[in-house]
Fold this protein.
Amino acid sequence: TTCSSWIERISSLVQPKQKTFTVSVEGNIGSGKTSFLRYIQANHDNITEVTEEPTDRWRNIQGHNALALMYEDPARWSLTFQTYVQLTMLQSHMAPQKKPIKMMERSIHSAKQCFVENLHNNGTMPDIEYIVLSEWYDYICAHDKVDVDIIVYLKTRPEVVLERIKKRHRNEEQTIPLEYLEQLHKLHEDWLGHQPNVLTLDANCDLIEMKTEIDKHIKTILCGLV
Ligand code: DGT
């Protein structure tokens, strides 16, 4: 799709006099969301504020590393972990916005649509836990301002992100198998494939090529404000 037709599509999706926007950046583990956001922030700091994913909070809940526990024993700790992810994501969505565009690394939606669905699909999370989390999620969506105007989807091949995960060598992630990344990839595709407000970027390339790709689509990414 060309840039100008994208702008038209987005203009028709947002409110006529809308002045603030929320953009979420989605994609598999290791797809390059953090680098993407740092590049945007470095170049468009005047109109964007970036909310990075609260992973540090997940790693230290009053001294407990929930992320590590979730990877070590997902059947025992996934509900605890996803409950906390949902809380911290809700806090990010609700945080007051000072600049025209709030850019979020992931959202409450990917936590549910990709990670929770996956844990349930692969039998790690029992029905009752899935139902409780889902009812919380539905209630939050109905009552709080967690809408996203545009989703930037950094699409990658599972094999590519596995290599990146191995290279960056985060302690908690060393046991992630290719199969898990394939499952998450499919859920991202199912979820984002059918949404009208998604800009999909090929994120298999290196950072230099990625920057060119971002520059090419910058008007769309920044909701027509540049
Ligand atoms: P990037 O910058 O694209 O490389 O992104 P990452 O890999 O730093 O960030 P992300 O969101 O893909 O994940 C950070 C870690 O947290 C990773 O080990 C996956 C895990 N994670 C994030 N959100 C959830 C969630 O809702 N549920 C589960 N089970 N894990 C999650």
Notes: The pocket of 2'-deoxyguanosine-5'-triphosphate is lined by residues 27, 29-34, 53, 55, 67, 70, 81-82, 85, 106, 111, 115, 173 (CB under 6 Å). Residues 3-10+19-221 form a domain with the Rossmann fold fold (CATH 3.40.50.300). The chain has one domain: 3-10+19-221.
